[in-house]
Design brief:
Blueprint (H helix, E strand, L loop, with lengths): L1 H7 L2 H17 L10 H20 L21 H19 L3 H11 L5 H8 L3 H19 L7
Helix pairs in contact: 1-2, 2-3, 3-6, 4-7, 5-7, 6-7
């Protein structure tokens, strides 16, 4: 459910997608082929249901990245620093929102769901090389847009 909420950024849509995914998992269970890892198969069906819900609702994908990039900065209680951190979070959100939907989904699966690239490839239905390329492009784009946050002005 967390994956869906992060991907769709809408709890109601996530619940609808989850319900559709459960139904598909039950009705398509005979199509699961045993030595294939079970988890990516489940995520693939869930991802497809989420995409379907987005199309139905015509919702733009957007997700919160407060925990996307782990900050190594010490915690500061200063109000000015807190405002600055909030502004940085907003900039990160904006940069991530600008990524194409498939790249955003891949990053959620990699960063939040801790999937390796092979599992992501199975989940989103593309080749391993495509995942590596898409992730590389996404990180390059984020680095370009966010380099000033790391002192790379």
């Amino acid at each position: 459910m967390i994956f869906l909420v992060r991907l769709l950024r809408n709890r109601e849509l996530a619940e609808d997608a989850l319900q559709a995914a459960f139904i598909k998992l039950i009705t398509k269970s005979s199509k699961y082929k045993y030595p294939m890892p079970f988890s990516p198969w489940v995520y693939r069906i869930t991802y497809n249901c989420a995409v379907s819900e987005m199309r139905k609702a015509k919702v733009q994908q957007n997700f919160i990245l407060k925990y996307f990039f782990n900050s190594n900065k010490p915690c500061q209680n200063d109000a000015l620093a807190e405002i600055s951190d909030m502004e940085a979070v907003e900039e990160i959100k904006s940069a991530i929102d600008s990524l194409p939907p498939k790249q955003r989904a891949m990053m959620i699966l990699h960063r939040y769901e801790e999937m390796d690239y092979e599992q992501i490839a199975v989940t989103v239905g593309c080749g391993l090389g495509s995942v590596k390329y898409q992730m590389g492009e996404a990180y390059k784009e984020l680095e370009k847009k966010l380099s000033h946050l790391a002192g790379g002005d």
